[in-house]
Amino acid sequence: MRDDVVHTVYSRRQLLTLRAAPGSKSTSYVGHLAALGLLRYRGNRAGASTQLRRSRAFVYKHDPHHQLGRVSNVYCRRSDCRRENLQQRDRLLVSVKGVADYEQVLKIGVLNVRSLGNKSAAVLDTVVHNSLDLFAVVESWHDSAESPSIIASTPPGYCVFERARLRTKATSLATNHGGICIFIRQGIQASLADLPLYKSFEHLSLKIRCGELSFIFVVIYRPDPASSLAVNDIFFDDLADLLERTSTFAKCTFVGDVNIHLDDTTSTHATRFTALLDDFGLHDIVGQPTHRHGHQLDVFVTRRDQSVKSVTVDPPLLSDHSLITATFDAAGLHATAQNAIVWRRRWASFDYDDFINELQESRLVLDPPTDVNELVECYDTTLASLLDKFAPRRQMKTTARPSAPWYDAECRRTKATTRKLEKTYRRNPSDSTRSAWRLQFNSQRVLFQKKLTDYWSAAIDSCRGNSKALWSKLRSLLQPCREPETVLTADDFAYVTL
Fold it and tell me: pTM above 0.70?
């Protein structure tokens, strides 16, 4: 390759402007792009009646033991059942490869969940649906990493770091309020930061390394002012000490619930909190209400010179606090999600009558071989050539996402309805659209939790009389996810310190 070759790089906006350029839709250009495999066609967003007419509805059989590199059974629902056998046999996995490098981002979420006990299924779906790499949860109300609510909330392919609130009485059976959990996608290096504990707030601090991005991640929960743990003067002294200890890191992300009305400009606590952040070169990127009562209690703090691609604050749905998500650049990030390249035929253009006419005029029907081996070979070659003519194959990319074994067709339909109402709210924000979305989301949360409970109840009940199978089910249900087995040394973080 020549060293003097100049490569031109276009942004997405520049590529979109080329649509209106003269000659941009020329057949020669389109053919050249198609030969290079660079063309990408939009999907079908037609309504239910149109999709039914075109017979493009697919029903995928869920396999809880599905492994990457193996294709699960796929069943196709067709208006003409005569096509089912032809379509069923045409499923071929070609290769498995990672997500494209241009999607090198790190997505972080934070939520005051107010108990994982009855929301574990919804929390798991939130992590998977939003493709979160790090998800911080405060007020988890758990006791240890072996708590069933923690295990049930951890999606496949994730690990969890947790810190439960210390009980004043070890033998107490009352609800253990407070608690912090951080769900981390496998492949991201993480280790506990050596920071002291404080009396005025709970915190869990991790050193994170993701590709070329390294930072310290601090999750904090300050109890409600009515609590005996929330002493304002001590809180600000402890917070200043924590920020002082993390100031040696070039990049710092500080999230959680501080229980201060940061939107109240007349509040001395809010002014003092903002001034303290400013002293350490930090700033909050939320800047809007995060609580059901219209106040900002939650924060997402970064350094001023730390770039953030996007920030999203959803209305309070899962609890009385909003889900906050932020996206950062993470060059060199090795995503764990996998894309499968499969061959599928274009059944939408398949003409059954023409196929039958061609088949009746073929050698297989008019002059079939008498030898069995030749007859089988003639059968395969004839059908393959006709299928390539009337329903040519094309490559398609499918993303393999982790899914819970209890997630079935009813869950997918309910979630589709929720997503439809969410899109309606985002297009037209109003009290009515927000209320409709919230009601549907609550129904979805109740359904997911019921599916989770019913699935494991049926699984355990099916092991009656088989102690080996029973203990296997209980192990998968009660065994906590292991933390990432990575040990980061001082040299790993030396280049990010001041």
Answer: no
